[in-house]
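Board notes (copied after class):
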Amino acid sequence: MTDTPSRENDSTDAVRIGLPDRTTPTWEVELLISGVAVFASKAGADTNPAWFHNVIAHPDVTAEIGPETHAFRAHVAEPAEREPIWTRQKAAYPGFADYETKTDRVIPVVVLEPAD
């Protein structure tokens, strides 16, 4: 992903550049039974991906998981919540550990919980 958004596949409001709703593909890991986590890794770049800023500005999001679309409320995981999720993701997908070595920033973990 780059900070220059495209118009393909996105469902977050494109706040920073004024584009209509967009879809951004992301890696996800299931959390317990009810939610998912997405990772603002941007392959280890020194800046967060554009979608991250959109989710912060508009935390009510939809995500396609398999063939179904679900409504979620997003929040950035605080350190105590983030650490076990991030550790599990790095173990399952070692490329994420590599991303972490490429940047000084803490890669945000965004938790998506089902909307009420």
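Comment from the instructor: Confidence is low (pLDDT under 50) at residues 1-20. The first helix runs from residue 50 to 57.
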